[in-house]
TrEMBL record, chain A:
This is Multiple sugar transport system permease protein. The keyword Cell membrane applies. Its main location: membrane. Pfam families: BPD_transp_1 (PF00528). The chain crosses the membrane at residues 12-37, 76-99, 111-130, 150-174, 208-229, 264-287. Belongs to the binding-protein-dependent transport system permease family. It is a multi-pass membrane protein. GO terms for biological process: transmembrane transport. It is found in: Cell membrane. It comes from Paenibacillus prosopidis.
TrEMBL record, chain B:
Residues 71-265 form the ABC transmembrane type-1 domain. Belongs to the binding-protein-dependent transport system permease family. One of its GO terms (cellular component) is plasma membrane. This is Multiple sugar transport system permease protein. It comes from Paenibacillus prosopidis.
């Protein structure tokens, strides 16, 4: 009797997850492994019948190709600037909104709204803001400053990062929820001890927000390494245009190789390298987290 | 009792509200100025404040390209994808939270690791697969992906359903409820905030996704996102002359649904994201 009940629960579990599981096997796992296989071949999109196994040659190209290494460098640079500043802005906005202020939902909406604007609209907007006689230069002109070629060689990456930071309020809702979760008595205790607001931030707020910051950090890194559409659309007109050199990011390179040059095998190798890099980075951040992330439950156990 | 009891000090209050105002201007001004410039006369230079109200630009935005057709495609894709993905994610999330079975741990590890997988890694091999199945330039792929749910939302529903007290479940079981009925009549209604969060975020994601349609559909089946990213607004006889004002108008039109969805579901989003992420 109990035995059948147990089996029935197992069956129910698998029945409930089967839509996901079946589709995952066919449209997740299979393409993943198939792509891995193709990355070891000379696949160019049309030569399905004469595929040749080329061993690690595509992967060697990833590391020997000066373009892909350049693109990787630029991607790491953009990530290294974009992620920490985004994190800091997101936290700062949340702390500001967590003060007892009036009209919370209005301020919150103002800071959050850029992150609900679809990326195509975002790029179209900023393209005109950055353009030669666009908003920024009009503003500079009014301030008696020299106009800047924002989308030119020197400033294109700055422009890209400014545009990305405009969406920094995206972590606001999570951060606010995290701040609400900090027990008020901790602040009271700190106050009794005579702690200044700055000290309270560093001894109470920051330690108790580390798990949220950790989540934001991982998501930020993963997202930032995968940027490709913003640079393409910022300086090009169509998805197949190559962006200006300094904004030639890693996934742009992969995208170009596949869609502009039909080098599918090589493009897939590029993507697999990225995927593995993301996995390794995530593991690294996870591992390091035990040194800097504070989990309340750890102490209860 | 909050972070700062000193917010009552007048000077501090001025600083805080001043800061809030400056930050609001920084975040909202790009949107405001795009709207203002979308109403400027054609070929005019950027202005820092609104100068005119040329609604004609909006008419151009929807007539220069096949806007209604692309809009229809956007709506079809969302109508297929959003409800299916939500239902399937909720079902799987429930199973992971409340049912026991061998292999569950492994499957859950798979779910969390696919959350990290760049979508584009699987898309090219998927293209080959769909090509063999004659699914290219049809909306069937979205049907299949919809049935498969989305790892992020499966995860979110699991977090949400884990918090439901066990007593509710036991009461239902004593009444002889089947698991599915219990799920449909007790758990799903409780999950309304999570469901709204999922629907809104999925809608925003699907509405804005231009790369998947770019790969799997051809021109006349493109949704707005792909059309705006690939076709754009320029003079018919000279593609180098970009029509900045109608283009801005299109950017504004295109963002209205996602912003509206945010306003509509704001209160759910705040709770839903809190429930999903903070405990994760």
């Amino acid at each position: 009797m109990l035995q059948t009940k147990k089996w029935r629960q197992y069956a129910t579990f698998y029945a409930f997850v089967s839509p996901w599981l079946i589709i995952f096997i066919f449209l997740g796992l299979f393409p993943l492994l198939y792509g891995l296989y193709l990355s070891f071949t000379n696949f160019t999109g049309f030569n399905m019948n004469q595929l040749k196994f080329v061993g690690f040659s595509n992967y060697k190209t990833v590391f020997l190709d000066s373009e892909s290494m350049y693109a990787l460098g630029r991607t790491l640079l953009v990530t290294a600037i974009n992620v920490p500043i985004s994190l800091a802005i997101g936290l700062f906005l949340a702390v500001l909104l967590n003060l007892k202020i009036k009209g919370l939902s209005w301020w919150r909406t103002a800071f959050y709204i850029p992150s609900v604007v679809p990326v195509v609209s975002t790029v179209l907007m900023w393209k005109f803001i950055f353009s030669g006689d666009g908003l920024l230069n009009t503003l500079f002109d009014k301030l008696q400053l020299q106009p800047i070629n924002w989308l030119g060689y020197e400033y294109a990456t700055t422009a890209l990062i400014v545009m990305l930071l405009w969406g920094a309020g995206g972590s606001l809702l999570i951060n606010l929820a995290g701040l609400k979760g900090i027990p008020a008595d901790l602040y009271e205790a700190a106050e009794i001890d005579g702690a200044s607001p700055v000290r309270k931030f560093f001894t109470v707020t920051l330690p108790l927000m580390t798990h949220i910051l950790f989540f934001n950090l991982i998501m930020g890194i993963i997202g930032s390494l995968q940027i490709y559409i913003q640079p393409i659309l910022l300086s090009g007109k169509t998805l197949l245009d190559s962006p200006i050199k300094p904004n030639y990011l890693y996934l742009v390179h992969a995208f170009q190789q596949i869609f502009a040059f039909q080098r599918f095998g090589y493009g897939l190798a590029l993507m697999w390298v990225l995927f593995i890099a993301i996995l390794l980075l995530t593991v690294l951040v996870f591992y390091s987290s035990r040194f800097w992330v504070y989990y309340e439950t750890d102490q209860e156990v | 009792m909050m972070v700062n009891a000193g917010i009552n000090k007048p000077l501090l209050r001025v600083v805080v509200y001043g800061l809030l105002t400056v930050l609001t201007i920084i975040f909202v001004y790009p949107l405001f100025i795009t709207m203002a410039n979308s109403l400027n006369p054609l070929y005019s230079l950027s202005t820092l404040l609104p100068t005119a109200f040329e609604w004609e630009n909006y008419k151009m935005a929807v007539t220069t390209i096949e806007f209604p057709e692309y809009l229809k495609n956007s709506l079809i894709i969302c109508a297929i994808s959003v409800p299916l993905t939500t239902l399937s994610s909720a079902l799987a999330g429930f199973a992971f939270a409340r049912l026991r079975a061998p292999g569950k741990k492994l499957l859950f590890v798979i779910i969390t690791s696919t959350m990290m997988l760049p979508g584009i890694v699987t898309q090219i091999p998927t293209y080959i697969l769909f090509h063999k199945m004659n699914f290219i330039d049809t909306f069937y792929p979205w049907l299949l992906w919809g049935i498969g749910g989305a790892p992020f939302f499966i995860f979110m529903y699991r977090q949400f359903f884990s918090t439901v007290p066990k007593e509710l479940e036991e009461a239902a079981r004593i009444d002889g409820c089947s698991t599915f009925r219990m799920y449909a009549t007790i758990f799903m209604p409780l999950a309304t905030p999570a469901t709204w969060t999922t629907v809104i975020m999925l809608f925003q994601g699907t509405w804005g996704d231009f790369i998947t349609p770019f790969m799997f559909l051809r021109d006349e089946h493109y949704p707005l996102a792909t059309a705006l990213a690939t076709i754009g607004y320029h003079l018919p006889d000279n593609p180098n002359v970009i029509l900045a004002q109608p283009s801005s108008a299109a950017a504004i039109l295109f963002m209205i649904p996602t912003i509206a969805a945010f306003f509509f579901g704001q209160r759910y989003l705040v709770d839903g994201i809190a429930a999903g992420a903070v405990k994760g």
